[in-house]
Amino acid sequence: MTGQSSSHAAAPVQWWKPALFFLVVIVGLWYVKWQPYYGKAFTAAETHSIGKSILANAEADPLRAALDYAMVYFLAVWKAAVLGVLLGSLVQVLIPRDWLLRTLGQKRVGGTLFGTLFSLPGMMCSCCAAPVTAGLRRQQASMGGALAFWMGNPLLNPATLVFMGFVLGWHFALIRLLAGLAIVPGVALLVQRWVKESDRPSPLPETATAAEPQGGFMARWGRALWTLFWSTIPVYILAVLLLGAARVWLFPHADGAIDNSLMWVVAMAIVGCLFVIPTAAEIPVVQTMMMAGMGMAPALALLITLPAVSLPSLIMLRKSFPAKALWLTGGLVAVSGVIVGDIALL
Fold first, then answer.
1. Of 290, 273, 267, nearest to 341 (Cα)?
2. What is the spatial distance between Cα 240 and Cα 108, in angstroms, rounded to a whole number?
């Protein structure tokens, strides 16, 4: 008993660290997400619109299309992207690892459920949630818990569901909610079951070791911030530019061409998994395309896959998960989009 007491006394929990982390979370999310979305909900209710489609009206020149797309996209997400990198680095140095191991570190259903629950306040798009997910993985969060957190941010975003109800109709919001509640923990659990944690890339244990208390707080945070930034942001920018150029060929805009057929449901599910959008941008995308004649079935496929994952976010997490896990996640999300779209064909 005495030995245990002295051991605990020698390593007390520095409560200012988690307190500082949660302060940054609350202030950051209030400024970047909660307060702007509160006002945007009234706009959606009054106008039945939250803006223009980011995928519409692509320039014929791929270079011009890439630059235009990247400018519109990054102007919409840069604050959330900065917050994502900030939180992804701070979680490595401010939150005790045993806290995360007892919650997100669980390799059974519990970790996945915690990841789903923790994702709800974030309201981030897949790319802005990716740095936080990478930070959690460096702190030994389980595959299921980290994936659920990552996908839950965009798919279960409460603000997006409210916008969707006012703009597209509450039946769309209900379908999205039910599908999200099934897809987020379901895909995370399946990937965790089918991909062994031993397949984890080697940089993770090294980074996790480096995240242990070595040196002062600012030095450790600086290392975590630089590692996270360098491993995610450059490839993120490059992937967004490439998708902006590919928009000229990949994303269809022909009026009335996208009907309620299985072919278009599959096509929209796959395309939705590739493209990157800001938070809730799937709503004006689907609204614009439905006004141009797109059927409800491919619209539902897009509403699921477009926010859930994207090629840039998958690339950003290439050092945090085995390649098999990322391929499997993207594939399962695409299949989920097809299934949801097929419901409208019945």
1. 267
2. 34
Residues 275-287 pLDDT 10s = 999 999 999 999 9
Q: What are the C-alpha distances in Å from 189 to residues 122, 194, 195, 322?
A: 21, 9, 10, 15
For helices 126-138 and 143-155, angle between their N-to-C axes, nearest 10 degrees: 160
DSSP string computed for 276-315: ---TTTHHHHHHHHHHTT--HHHHHHHHHHHHH--HHHHH
User: Tokens 């002295």 sit at which residue?
Assistant: 6
Question: Whose CA is closest to 283, among 78, 48, 75?
Answer: 48
Q: Taking the chain, what is the end-to-end CA distance rounded to the nearest angstrom? A: 66
d(CA 42, CA 6): 56
Element (H, E) at 167: helix 158-167
Please list, in sequence order, all residues whose beta carbon lies within 8 angstroms of the beta carbon of residue 260, skipping any fewer than 6 positions away.
Answer: 295, 296, 297, 298, 344, 345
Q: How far apart are CA 303 and CA 307, in angstroms?
A: 7
For the question of whether the overall pTM of this predicted structure is more than 0.85, the answer is yes
* Class of residue 157 by CB neighbours under 10 A (exposed 0-12, middle 13-18, buried 19+): buried
- The single-letter DSSP state of residue 33 is I
Tell me which H or E stretch contains 61.
none
pLDDT per residue as tens digits for the range 179-221: 999 999 999 999 999 998 864 444 433 333 333 445 688 999 9
